[in-house]
Amino acid sequence: MELAGWIKDLTVWIIHWAQTPYGGLALFALAFCESSFFPIPPDALLIALCMANPPESFWYAVLSSLGSVLGGIFGYGIGRLGGRPLLERWVSAERIQLVQRHYQRWDVWAVAVAGFTPIPYKVFTISAGAFLLNFVRFIIASVLSRSARFFLVAGLFYFYGPTINQFILRYFNVLSIIFIALLILGFYFIKVSSKRAMRNS
Fold first, then answer.
1. The pLDDT of residue 1
2. pTM recorded for the entire structure
3. Mean pLDDT, to the nearest integer, of 166-194?
4. Whose CA is closest to 135, among 60, 199, 83, 74?
5. How many angstroms from the chain centroid is the CA of residue 47?
6. Given Cys at both, which of 18, 72, 139, 179 links 125, Cβ 3.0 to 4.6 Å?
7. What pLDDT, on a 0 to 100 scale, did the predictor assign at position 174?
């Protein structure tokens, strides 16, 4: 309950930037930070900005995509330069070997799935660098998955803005709960799937 409340408060703080002249800049910065260390994805602010100004929705998608991919590159660099020693310090050798085998099997598909779904993208950007995934394929997977995610949201507001705005305003509380639940479930999925894979290895 405390975790959900903390996430909700942080999300509300993020959304308030849509009411300022710095909404676009804040969206870019949030997308960048979320790809390497920040816990809240940029979708909440992206939606708020698209609601306020539907004709600019695709521009906001560009800012989100660009910030996210650049942040992913930063996360990859963290993993490449220091991620492996950090993993070896905090994670067991068996789990490190398991994660490495997953990357050897799925390669950048793991990054692409995380980039499009609620699964925390930052976990995969840092580990991709730590396990030396091909950088070019990493960039391609990131650009395709993150752009698809953000432009899908932007397209809905651009073409169906008034209808979607009414729906969100009507069910805002419910949608907020769903957003927080998906965020928590994303981290929980990684934890559970890791434990299950270790038992089966």
1. 44
2. 0.75
3. 54
4. 74
5. 14
6. 72
7. 53
| Maximum Cα–Cα distance across the chain | 53
Model pLDDT for residues 68-101, shown as the tens digit of each residue: 999 999 989 988 887 667 666 655 565 566 566 6
End-to-end alpha-carbon separation of the chain, Å?
Answer: 34
Task: Residue 168: name the closest of 182, 153, 181 by CA.
Answer: 153
- Per domain, the residue ranges of the chain are 2-200
Does residue 16 contact residue 192 with C-beta atoms inside 8 Å?
no
Q: What is the DSSP string of the chain?
A: -HHHHHHHHHHHHHHGGGGSTTHHHHHHHHHHHHTTT-SS-THHHHHHHHHH-GGGHHHHHHHHHHHHHHHHHHHHHHIIIIIHHHHHHHS-HHHHHHHHHHHHHHTTHHHHHHHHSSS-HHHHHHHHHHTT--HHHHHHHHHHHHHHHHHHHHHHHHHHHHHHHHHHHHTHHHHHHHHHHHHHHHHHHHHHHHHHHHHH-
Tokens describing residue 53? 């100004």
Here the tokens at position 78 are 């963290």
Residue 91, pLDDT score: 54
* Residue closest to 46 by CA, chosen among 145, 158, 162, 141: 158
